[in-house]
Specification:
This is LacI family transcriptional regulator. The protein is α/β, with parallel strands linked by helices. It folds into three domains: 44 residues, lambda repressor-like DNA-binding domains (434 Repressor (Amino-terminal Domain), Orthogonal Bundle); 119 residues, Response regulator (Rossmann fold), CATH 3.40.50; 129 residues, Rossmann fold (3-Layer(aba) Sandwich). It has a six-stranded parallel sheet with strand order 2-1-3-4-5-11, with helices on both faces. The chain has a six-stranded mixed sheet with strand order 7-6-8-9-10-12, with helices on both faces. α12 links the parallel β9 and β10. The radius of gyration is 25 Å and the shape is elongated. The mean pLDDT is 91.
Length: 319
């Protein structure tokens, strides 16, 4: 099997020179570089990238921890990361967890074996402290606000965003407002902040009458609409959905059952997906692609940073 010693011998250069050519080191004489590259091509040599990465201590690869690879929220964040990484000639390794804490910690071990230079965590299953017991703070960037000064993050003020969404509904004159959320566990910032925003704006406790958890897609939206409109103690006049796909499901159920939108039921979605534009559903855009771009830029800067991404209400005909 061809190795760099053989390439060096054939090219009449040192092993160090071959190594520099393979690692694209700038300080190699042009004639030596040409000879080495010619021999590499002639022998069809494919370098062992893992060994090279260990030798130089850098992989030009960033890992991205995300719960799902088929969810619009994380798809938008990942899209921003990928575009920014491509510009800087970085590879991206997606590390799905399904919100399994053990799998998440296992992914972090890639930092110890130098398979990636750092990891961007779009959403976590573990408390911060558990993550920091496995990884160094400078190796991580979070896509949520972190109070610890040593932790880098690109973030949305989720409480303020949800508050603006609920106030928009309230200012339109709706009072019997229901909403859907995603995860129910105590670690989910989105769920915590949406509940807190609802309770502050409407000065009432969120409960099964006005809240439904684990809503992610169109079918969940239809099920949520059926629950709120047919089974809940108080029939809502407006629903703030977890995302635009959920909002589309609520919209579909309302239309199938002869309800007018927004006269009989107002709907607010989230993330400004194409389906919300097609159905003319008002939505709150968190600008998640910008969030992903900012997260990668922070990682690439090698500096502790906290960058806030501003949200935007997109007003259409459903509210």
């Amino acid at each position: 099997m061809t190795n760099i010693k053989e390439i060096a011998k054939r090219a009449g250069v040192s092993v160090t020179t071959v190594s520099r050519v393979l690692n694209q080191h700038p300080y190699v004489a042009a004639d030596k570089r040409e000879r080495v590259e010619a021999i590499i091509h002639e022998l069809d040599y494919i370098p062992n990238r893992s060994a090279m990465n260990l030798a130089r201590g850098k992989t030009n690869t960033v890992g991205v921890i995300l719960p799902y690879t088929d969810h619009p929220w994380f798809d938008k964040i990942t899209s921003g990361i990928l575009e920014a990484a491509f510009r800087e000639k970085y590879s991206v390794t997606l590390l799905p967890t399904g919100y399994d804490p053990k799998r998440e910690l296992k992914h972090l071990e890639m930092l110890k074996t130098k398979q990636v230079d750092g990891i961007i965590i779009t959403s976590r299953a573990n408390p911060f402290q558990s993550l920091l017991e496995v990884a160094e703070v400078e190796q991580l960037v979070f896509c949520e606000e972190t109070e610890q000064p040593e932790l880098s993050c690109a973030y949305i003020n989720r409480f303020q965003a949800f508050q603006d969404g609920f106030r928009f509904i309230q200012n339109k004159g709706y009072q019997n407002v229901a909403f859907t959320t995603g995860r129910t566990d105590r670690i989910s910032p989105s769920t915590q902040n949406k509940i807190a925003a609802f309770e502050e704006v409407f000065a009432t406790k969120a409960n099964r009458a006005n809240m439904l958890n684990n809503c992610y897609d169109v079918s969940d939206g239809e099920a949520a609409a059926e629950y709120f409109l047919e089974k809940a103690p108080v029939k809502p006049d407006a629903i703030y959905a977890t995302g635009d796909e959920v909002a589309a499901g609520i919209f579909a159920y309302a239309r199938k059952n002869g309800l007018r939108v927004p006269e009989d039921l107002a709907i607010l979605g989230q993330e400004n997906l194409p389906v919300s534009e097609v159905l003319e559903i008002s939505t709150l855009d968190h600008h998640l692609k910008r969030l992903g771009t900012a997260a990668f830029s922070i990682f690439h800067s090698d500096k502790v940073q906290k960058q806030k991404i501003h949200h935007e209400l997109v007003k259409r005909k459903s509210l």
